[in-house]
Structures are given as C-alpha cells and as structure tokens.
Specification:
The chain is an alpha/beta fold. The protein is built from 46 helices and 21 strands. It has an eleven-stranded mixed β-sheet with strand order 11-14-12-13-10-3-4-9-8-7-17, with helices on both faces. The chain is globular. About 40% of the residues are buried.
Amino acid sequence: MVDGNAAQWDAFRSQKRSAVYTPPFAPWMITALQLAKFSIFVALHSIMLFGAAISKGIIIFLATNLSKPSHSPLETKFSKECPRAVNRDDNLHAGVHISLLLVHIVPDVVSIVQCFYRLTTIGRGQGGINIPVIFLETCRTMGFLLMFFHVFPQLDMLRALLITSCLPIIPIAQKLLMDVSRTMKDEHSLMKRFGMTLATFPSFIVFLVLTAGCYLWTVLDTQFDRYIILPLAIMLASLGFWESWVGVGHAGTFFHHLHQMKYGIRKMNAPTRLLTSTIRIFITLTVFVVTAANGKVTMKGMTGVLFHWRSTEKHWPLLIVALCLCVLHIILRISSRLLAGLELRVLSGFHPIFLTSPLLLTALVIHCHISPDCWIASKVAAVGLTFRCSQWIAAPIPFNDIYLALMWLLISMYKGYQFASQPNFDKHDEIIRATPVVMNPFCIEQSLLVFEFAISRDESKLLKLDFDSILDEHSGKQSMGSEGDRTANVYICATMWHETENEMKQMFGSILKLDEECAHLSTRKTRHFAGNANETPKFRLEAHIFFDDAWEDQPELGRAPNEYFRTFFTLLNSMIDGKEDASSNDPTKVLIGTAYGGRLVVRLPAGTLLFIHLKDKKLIRHKKRWSQVMYMYYLLGHRIMESHMSIEDKQLIAENTYILAIDGDSKFEPEAFLRLLNLMHNKSDIGCACGRIHPIGRGMMVWYQKFEYSIAHWFQKAAEHVFGCVLCAPGCFSLFRAAALMDDNIMHKYTTTAVEPRHFVQYDQGEDRWLSTLLLKQGYRIEYAAASDAETYAPEGFEEFFNQRRRWTPSSVANTIDLLADYRRACANNACISRIYILYQFCVIGFSMLGPAIIFSMLLYAQVAAFHVNMDRIIVYNTVPVGFFIFTCFAMESNIQLFVAKVLSIGYAFVMLAVVVATCSQIVLETMFSPTSMFVVGMIFIFLFAACLHPREFTNIIYGIIFFLMIPATYVILSFYSLINLNVINWGTREAVAKATGQETKKESKLETKLKKAWNGATGTILRRKEKAGDKRIEELERQLEEVKIAVQRPNSFNDSQIRENELAEKPWEDEEVSSDGELSDGSEMVVRTSQKDLWMDAEYLQVCEKGRLKPSEQQFWDQLIDTYLKPIQTSPEQNLAYAKGLKDLRNNVAFSLILLNALMVLAIYLTQNHKDVLAFSWMPHEDFKQFRWNSTAQEWTKQKVPLKVEMLGLSIIFALFGILLVQTVGLILHRLNTMVGAFQEIKAMGDFVTTAATKREDDDQILEAARSLLDTSYYWRSHGGSGYTRDIGADREAVLHRLQRTRLATAIRNHGLN
C-alpha cells in the first residue's frame, strides 16, 4: 500500500457516515415550435387577463353580499327585469363570510407549510428577518381586509370596483413630492424653478382627484358611514403595494433591500415569509371575527358551514367557488412566470393591471343597466346572493359621483400601464426577472406583474460585491467569472469490450463530430459579458477509450492487442484518413507501453487528442467499474491533484472539469452534449446530468425496449427529476462534474472491492447505479435533460435481453433499498431529496416487488372471464408452468432456464389476448364506472397523452402492443429469473461461475441433452461450427507466422519521435514482473525483457504509428494506482467457494422471501374474490346506474339497477398504482414544460433559421436558466431571480479540494508527530 502522504493523487476519502453547423431542429420543427410559442403566448395572455377579471369580479360580488339587504335600493334595469326574492339563512350568511376568508387565508397557510418544510429540511443559511417587507405586507393586508370586509358591504359592485382605482395614491404623492423638491434646489434659476412649479400642477390635480375617493361619499348625501375606515383602507393598501413606488432609484438608499427584493436580486427567506404569513393570517382572522360579529353571523351558522360538508347544502357552492379561486390564482401566477421565463412580455395595453377594471366595468354596466341576464340572477339567488347593482335608496346629492369615479379609473389605468411597461435593455445586458414575493388574492392583478432589471457589464463588478452579502438569503451567486474561468475541460471517457465494427463506428463518429464542434466553438468570436448564463461555454476536449480485455497471447509477439483492437484501429484509420492536418509536423499516432498494457495516442483532425488505453487483464483489473476507477484517478487524481498549482487553482479547475461517460456503442450529436454542458455550467449543485437514451437495433425485443425506454423516461425519470433526483445516470451518456466525483465517499468508495454477497450485486452488477447512489447520498443532484438524445444498441435476442435484465434488476433494487435504508442521511445531505420523495420511491419499489403476484392474479381472472372456466382449474393450469419455471431456475443451467422462459413467454402472449377480451367484457357489462375499467381506460389515455407530448417519439406508442403482450414475460417470468439467479455475478452463463469457483462443470442429463438439441438444432450443425472454428484458427496461425518472418527481418528499435501528450517525455522502460502464465504471482517471478514486452508495437498494421514513452511521474502513478486499487484480484479456490456459498445463501433468503410474499398476495386476492359477497361493498356511481346482468329467465343479458361490488384489496391496489401513475404524469407535464422552455430559447438563439442558418452561426445555443429559475417545479422560494441563480445545496458547503488538502496536511502532521 502506498503512503497517502506521498501520493497526492490518492487524496480522496471515504468516511463512515460541430465546424459545419448542423441545426438541432428540422425546419418544420422550428416552425412548429414557433407556432406553439405564439399559441402559448396567446393562451397564457388570455388566461391572465380573463382569469384576473373573473377573480376580481367574484370577490367583489361576494364582498358586496356580506350584508343582508335591509331596505329596497334604487331601482335599476336589472332589478326591474330580474326581480328575485332572496332568502338567506344563517348558514348561507356565514358561508359568504367564510368563502372570502378561505380565498385570502389559503395562500398564507400553504406558504407556512412550505416554510416549515424548508426550515426542517435545509435549516441553515436562512438569514435575518426583513422587517420593512413584513411591515408593508401587513399594511397591504390590513388595507384590503378593511376595504373588502367593512367598506364594500355598503357599496354596490360598480362603486366597489371604482374605489379600487384609488390605490395609486401613494405613487402619485411620491411623484408630487419629488417634483416639488426639485423646484426648491438653489442651483436652478428663478424662471426655471417657476416653470418647474407649474409642471407640478398636473400631479397635484391628479393627487387631489384620487384623494377625493377618501371622503367623497362622506360629504355627499348618501347612506355611506365608513368615513374613517375608507381613507385608512385606501392609504394602507396603497402603501402596502410597495412594488409600485419602489424603483431602481432606491438602490443604495433606505429602501435598498426593498429594491433588491422587488427585482429579484434578493429573495425572501423562509423566516421572513413565515412571519409575514403568520401575521397576515392573524390579521385576517381578527378582521373576520369583527366583521362576523357586526354582520350578525351566528355561531350556529359558522358551525353549519364548517362541519356540514354535504353537497346538498346550499352553502356548498360558495365553498367550491372559494377553493376554485385559490386554484385560479395559482394558475395565474404560474402563467405570469412562464411568460417571463419564455421572455414573452405581456403587452402593457393588455396587462391585467391595466385592463381588469375596464373589462369588469363594461360587464357590470351591460348586466345592470343595458341587458341584464336573468338566468345568472336566478342561479345566484338560489344560494342567497344577488347582484348589488344599486345599494343606496337614492342617488347621491348634490352631484353624481360616477363622473369623478371614472376619473379615478382613468388615472388607475394610466399608472397600471406604467407599471406593466418595461424598458428596452441592451441585448448584451443580463436581465433579471422577478415576480412579487407575496400573493395578494383580493387584487390578484398586482401579483401578476413581472419586474425586469438589467445588469450591464460595468455594473456587474459593483453588484458582485453586493451578491456576496446575499448568500445568507439562500439565493446563490451570479456566475461572473472571466472568459478563462468559463472555459471548461471536458474528457470523453468511453469503456469498450468486444463491440462490433458498426457499434465502434457510431461511437467514434460521435467523438469526431464533437471534435469538430469544439474546434468551431474555440475559433468563433463570441461576446463574453459578465454573468451571462445563457451563453454556451467554450470547452477544451480530450477523449479517452478504455479497451477492456484487449490483449491475447500470440506465438511471435507474446502479449499483443486482439482482433477487436485491430478492427477498431482499421476503422479509425478509415474514418480520419485524409482529414489530418498535413501542415503539422507533430505525429498523429503514437504507441506507448504502460503498466496496464499499452496506449495508442491519436491526434484527431480538429486537434483533439484521443487516448486509447489497452487494458491487459493479467496486469490490471478488467470490467467497466475498474475502467471508470482508472480514468477517475488518472484524470482527476494525477492530472489535477499532482499538478504544480495552488489549491485555489486546483479547485477552480475541478469545478470546471467534466467527464462525459459513454459506452462503446453510444451515438450522440454535439448539440446533445452542449445541452448537458450548459445545464451543468449554470447549476452548481448538479453532480451529474444525463440525457434521453434511445435503444436501436432490429427485432421484436428491440421494439419492446423502445416502448419500455419511452415510458421509463416519459414518466419515471421525469417524475424523479421534478420531485427529487434522478436515481440512475446511465453510463452510456452522462456528464459528471469532477468536483463532485472527487468529494468524500464517492470516488474513493467507488474503489471498494466486493467481499460481501450483497456487494457483488450492488457494486459489480450495476456500477452506474451505484455511482449515482454515492452522488445522491453525498448531497449532489442528478438531473435529466430530455432534449439531449443519445442512442445505444439494445439486446436483440431473447437470451441476451434476459441476461442483461438479470444483471440490472437486482442491482437497481439493491441500490434503491440502500438509499431508502439510509434515507435520513440522504435527506440531510441532499436538499432535493425529501421524505415525501422517499415515500414515493418506497411505494414504487414495493409494488415492483409485488408485481409478479399482481400480474399473475390479473392473468387468472382474465382467463376465467374470457373462457368461463372454473377458477380452481385456472389456478392449476397457471401455477404448474410457473412453478416448473421456478424449479428450473433453481435446479438447471441458464440455457435450459432461458428455453423454458421463451416457451412460457410465447404461451402467455396468447393468454394476454384473453386479458383484452376480459377487460372489454367488463367495460361493457359493468360500464366505465368499475374501478378496473377506469384504471385501464385512464392508463391508455395517459400513455396516449404522453406520446402526444413527445411528437418525435409518438411512433413508439405502436410498440406498446408488443409491450402489452410481453407483460407476463417481463413482470413474472423475468422477475423470477432475475431473482433466482441473484447469485450469478458474471455476464454470461452459469457454467462460467462453476469454472470460476474451481468446480467441474456438471455433465448434462438426458433431459438437458434433448433440450439442447431442440434449442440448437441437429448435432451436425454443432460439428460444422466446430470445423469452421478450427479452420479459422489455422488461418490465424498462418497469418501470425508470416508476421514473425517480417519481424525477424526488421530490427527492434524505438523511434525517437514523440508527441506532447500532457507532458509526455522520454523515459526508459522499467521492467515489469509477471509470472510465466501472465498473472501476478506471490512466489517465484521472472523478469520479462523490455524488448520482448514491447514486441506488440512491431505488428505490421501498427507500423504507421510512432513510439513514445511515458513521463516518469505518470509511470510512477500507474504503478502506485495498480498496486493500491487495481491489482488483479487473486483468490484461492476456498475463497471462491465461500463467495459462491454466500451468494447462494443470499439468493435463497431473498428468493424464498419474495416468492412467499407474492404467493401470499395471490392467495389474499383469491380469497377476497371468493368471498366477494361478504367482503366487498356496494357502490352506486349515480342514482340511475345500471349494469348488464345475466337474466336466467329470459336467457339474455339485460340492464339491471344493481350496484357494483368492489372489494377493498383490489381497489387499494388499483388506487395505489393509478396514484403512482398520476404523480408521474404530473412530473411528465412539468418536465415537458421545462424542456419546451429550453427549446424555445434555442429557437430564439438560432434566429431566422431558414434564411441565415445555412451561411452563418452568430449565436450560441441558449437554454435560458432564468426560465428554469422562474419555473422551478419543486420549490417556491427558488422561483425568483434571473440567470445565474443556482439552487443552493448549502451556502456553507466547503470547497472539496480545500477539505481534502486540510485532511492531507493534518494526516501528515499526525504521522510526523508519531515518528
């Protein structure tokens, strides 16, 4: 073991606890997106305008009905044409008051719940309480409550609407005072001051007109007596609307914090929001109690409303309307934020704050005085309400107040237009957009404003200092690094094994495209201005391919690269032939001997270096996980930790270094990678971002996987992204942040060698899932970018598919259980993982374990309904084959298991047709109201809806037919196959396990021999295959002998040519000690001479390459790394037998437990169905419900008024499954909305694609982070701020490398003290 103080690369810890622009969108897709964007703009604009008008109209209608009419008001056309006798009992009277109370109090209750959740989950870095905001929001609340609960009951709807137009009185007074103060400055001449004084008269007159609203009805002869409350309410509400009088000029003044909060520079923290909401609720309840007492609301009426929630009660519609208003307000706020996120400004002349009052005024005048609608009057009269078109007995004397009130409206419209108007900013400025921090339900149009603030290049340096003080508000920092800081280091790391030529071609082709794109971005002129998070960052690219098991023994060359590398080398030459830079004197291909085998370094056409690491499994551990350990420690440990830089520079490089993990058959476009890079660049708490994986290939199994991958990404991954974190970042296309991998308990723990049985399952069978689990438990977020598409080859054969899932399923379950078992640590470290999310995952994993029982029971009852066979016989017919398969999995070899599985899968595919018939029969007989019918129809509708949201993948819904037919195969047969083969930890058949444990392969029985013959065909076919294999071997030996002749004629010598491969330098080769059989040995060893070791470089097809040597420091690094973590595992036969026994014991415990659990579930469903008459309850969907029943007398099906029989166990299963599906559907919608925002921003960045994209590319692909901030779907308090604001995982999170450096120094001091 190497001393950790001497090797800086081993500082990581585990603790207990394109050049030619290819547009990413087709022209028709761009047109469709632009039309969709325009449609969304029109739709959201209309929703905001008419929704705000409806909300305000209903609230004013309820407020004017708070008082019972005690006299006959002045007659209007409405009262003449639609006379209605209104009878209001105590319950209805109390219902009106409680409805208004709910509208105002529900948002504050929700806000308190959110704040408590945030304080309990995050609990740090919340900052101090903002007293000015609390005071002003209290004033606004008090003003509106007094106005709506005390003033409006004495007014008709028209006057109540017009009095709200007096709210701009404080901004008008502020402007008047500023104008007057300018006239008093001595630097102006007397004449100019006189002219400025005259200019203040318009503001003075407007102020007097608005002030008249405070006392107008007091001086006129009216029945209005709220002459003290009215001016107080107007002044408090106007003062509380602080966003109207706080502007950019208040920066640096007493109102500086208000300025920051208005424009999103500072966010309202949880303590301030909690205290604000609590005070608002207290004031609301106080005013409500006083109003109820004055309005003679009885306690009997209050209890009748609160505790009698029957739909037959007359006050029920009032409560429904109140709750609908709460939902409407949420929709309006989301619409406003979405428009801001899309950079679509609401037209000032059509903004709700400008047009709501005129629209309502027009509607009221038409309804009350021009064309009354008596139908509406009859409906509201049924619940004891009426339209108060007139409240007073006679018109005001001595003049009509309406004319003055109309002037209030005009002034309010003018100020509203100013509020809604936003200045035009320079396109190079960073725009921050924010919405009001507190919702105002009684005047919702105030909460729909969007305030924009521009940070120019000069201002950004000044604002950066101010941002440092905002960290305690949990808002994150702006990214204001220099251009050099914004250049990322990207390493493509591909792991290969025995891929086909076509798979190699698509992977290497993707690397070549990204090589060209990197060169294009590095030479393109871009404007770098501070804080712009919309800009695609530049990056330096380097590619690494780790070739597993790439060596073989050859007689003349010893250990040499195998045929798979030769295939790749030939493919590489053909794909880059003619593209190299002929003017460059640097070599393009260099061979290097290494401690782990060998390396080929290739300079790609656009300048990117490609490192092909050829791993010899006799020198270093093979398989994918150990290849990942290789590149993590090489690129992050050796390249960064052992560099001669300060710890600050290392931290900066680590934060801007990313590893793109791909497989040997991955295919992706540069745009897909750029989207991941942009996402990682803009959000600092993301440890990994993964894309949308598309399976490719041929055959029915690939069709099945196309639909399976689709619904997994559409529903499961989208829901994980929205409500928590993605649990698995696929190794075929994921971008990792270097600083995250270097953190404690991730990179170092990933080197753990499996010794316990469960470790073999969790660590080695699903390495991608385990690495994701480590990231999540350490506190890093994994996100899913649906717009980043990648393709990978899927298993095409039945056997290959089953073996793949045999590896994946146990590993996924093991890692999920590991995360759930350690949920306290995960929730404490990761702000994006909540207990609710843990509960959701618990439900998902629970039902996946019970999946075989649920599907098996469905098959049983479907066959009974379709074939009209006795249930007991059907159970026997299905239990025998499934039981035989379970026995086969325990007792026979894998090829026999797969043969039986294939036969059963085909048989049950036909049985699924019975499920279709049974389901259709149940829908016809029991109508759509039966739980099963609703579940099936709802699921089909949801799948079709999801496909419509993914138009480019819509055709995948066709493959749902194959998926449906294979449900028994995958949910029952495959589940048992994966479960019972839990102890098989290799990637092949069970015979490989027997060989690995030192046991002799068992001889085949007669039954096995016959089955194999049926599986492979005639034995003659097998013999012919062997003969062909022998011929092929003879040809290979002849070719090798020819190469030996050539090698003898050519002397062994090194070429002095070298390249700079990250400080490659000359170094004599050091001797490697290997045993005679090529494996590391504990006893006698023999030294292999350097000339013999490097004979592989003299192969004829490698003569186009030059030879190089490693730098001594890198050679030392590889020696130490292999000795510490990657030495080939050597175990004795006794240890192998112990591992095999432990795995078998684990298999037996888990398998028998889950088989017993599923058997009990099947039995429970069977018994409840058999005793359905006793255990089920009757349900009548509606009064006239009828279902088809067999009439034995008439011998036909007739409709009978019979209730449905529903048993609780089946209903609970259906509700749980459908509930999970609904949650995932909500996540799907929100994630698609987020993806659509990114697509719109890319279209905007592309400009006019049809006319200019073919000749020039001026702007980077932009995915606007402001949209993601404003449209955050998980947390409300993160929904403010502009681009560059990142979700914070703890403002006090210490830099990773600083922690590692401090620990390393402490260890060195401790060791020095001990010595």
